Amino acid sequence: APPSRVVSLAPSITEVLFALGQGERVVGVTQYCRFPAEAKAKAKIGGFHDINYELIVRLKPDLVTLIPSHREAKTHFAELGVATLTVDQTSLDSILTSIHTLGKMCGASSMAKDLVDRLQAEITEVEEKTANRRRPNVLICIDRDRSTGKVDAIHIAGNSGFYHEILRAAGGENVYNDTVVKYPLLSTEAILRLNPEVIIEMVPELDDKGWNTTELAAHWDQLPGLSAVRSRRVYVFGGDYVSIPGPRITRLLHEVTAALHPQLELSGQ
After folding, report:
1. Is 29 left (phi over 0), alpha (psi -120 to 50) or beta?
2. Distance (Å, rounded) from C-alpha 64 to C-alpha 56?
3. Beta-strand (E) ranges in 25-125?
4. pLDDT per residue over 78-135, tens digit each?
């Protein structure tokens, strides 16, 4: 029988469960699970590094849903006798597969298929419309110390994972082509050597910090030698969805596509 009491340890999983109409089964979520609004009313069981196991046990879940990096937590739940399900959401394909997996788990396979079909259609449309266009070299910044206003020691999206795949689908080329490190840490000198034509910065905590996208983009003016700075092609995307590999992933895909190829018209926008 489908579980009646589910705890989610990842915002991406929480969003899938609600998108499949399974919100009533969810009894606990992390402090970072804020979408949809109904998720905010669920019991908060901590974050990634501070899971409240005692509270989770009190919630009496039939199942705790995890992501692969929750290896230690999975072991601890096994010791507690709590059933778990791990879903991978590190790539576009695995995000879609996770929707099927969670849908089957909850007895909502039909809804899962409909959702996956819609998302896949949006991805395919973007890929087809960008296939024959020139692909600019793009640097995706996923983290830096923005409080200082300096552009140095930035983490970027490497040559694997869903950011890289979104970039490729959107008609861009990752300026960083080393596949060994998933999220490399680059110095100012390294950024200047790469000299991207476009810079896209992901800021999921934009609203929480009260930052302004225009001001954050202006930080890059400290590097006037960059092609992206000279051509005014520095884009800052804010909102929690930019870091959550769930059902809203095509929203990010459309925004990246619009930045790289603003002349394109997409039905999903």
Report:
1. beta
2. 9
3. 26-29, 43-44, 63-66, 84-86
4. 999 999 999 999 999 999 999 999 999 999 999 999 999 999 999 999 999 999 999 9
